[in-house]
Write a structure and sequence with these properties.
alpha/beta; 8 helices; 11 strands; nine-stranded mixed beta sheet; 20% strand; two-stranded antiparallel sheet
Length: 240
């Protein structure tokens, strides 16, 4: 294990389900899952304790289901199950790299993963196992952003690292507007007031109330996660 060259000892990595799709239109792209697993391993090798939350939008998104006439609560539970599938795929990729991993679900399903018990999860982290928290908060109407912020607080993480398609938070969509400006640092309240879409409002408020910084970076840059942790590369920090 290499020497820890970061100020963070325990972090939450939040990625969307779409991040696992690669260039495909739906589902999982195994080479992309493996690439992200290698990113996680590079940070794990620094001695950092890692929690993960992965969205389910590559398989099923509750909000889209409800928009098409499905009852919202049922649609949200289906979305939670999609996150379990993604978590199991990531666990498989990490264990191929010899990283001990636990999938911990807010909805009990004992045959495939552990139920969420906070003290047990903390112990896994202390033993340097990667903990992937699945099934959101276990409640409808809450996103995986909120779940990531909740678990990050419960696990005493020092920051949330949100891996996205862009290298930070911009004042407008940089893919549509070449003149978009990236923020180096921005407050929680500014994110909420300007509707910048970093995370949903309840997740931002929960992070703000617990003084938990959110670091937004590009997951598409190889070595990005390790680089950002080491204080290199381009990112945006959302803070007090």
């Amino acid at each position: 294990m290499t020497e820890n060259r970061t100020k963070y000892g325990r972090v939450m990595l939040k990625i969307s389900g779409e991040a696992l799709m690669g260039d495909t239109a739906f589902g999982l792209h195994p080479p992309t899952v493996q690439r992200i697993a290698r990113e996680v391993k590079s940070v794990h090798d620094m001695g950092v304790e890692i929690c993960m939350v992965i969205g389910g939008g590559n398989i099923f998104r509750g909000l889209q289901g409800s928009a098409q006439g499905m009852e919202r609560t049922t649609a949200d539970y289906m979305g939670m199950l999609a996150t379990v599938m993604n978590a199991l795929a990531m666990q498989s990729a990490l264990e191929e790299l010899k990283i001990h991993t636990r999938v911990i679900s807010a909805i009990p399903m004992d045959q495939v993963c552990e139920p969420y018990i906070r003290r047990r999860a903390v112990r896994h982290l202390e033993k340097k196992r990667v903990c992937i928290f699945a099934a959101g908060t276990g409640n409808p109407y809450f996103t995986t952003d909120t779940a990531a912020t909740l678990r990050a607080n419960e696990m005493s993480c020092e920051a949330i690292f949100k891996g996205t398609k862009v290298d930070g938070v911009y004042d407008k969509d940089p893919k549509k507007h070449p003149d978009a400006k990236r923020y180096e640092r921005i407050s929680y309240d500014e994110v909420l007031q300007k509707h910048l879409g970093v995370m949903d409002a309840s997740a931002i408020a929960l992070a703000r109330d617990n003084h938990l910084p959110i670091i937004v970076f590009s997951l598409d840059d190889t070595g990005g996660f390790k680089g950002i942790l080491a204080g290199e590369g381009t990112s945006t920090t959302v803070h007090d």
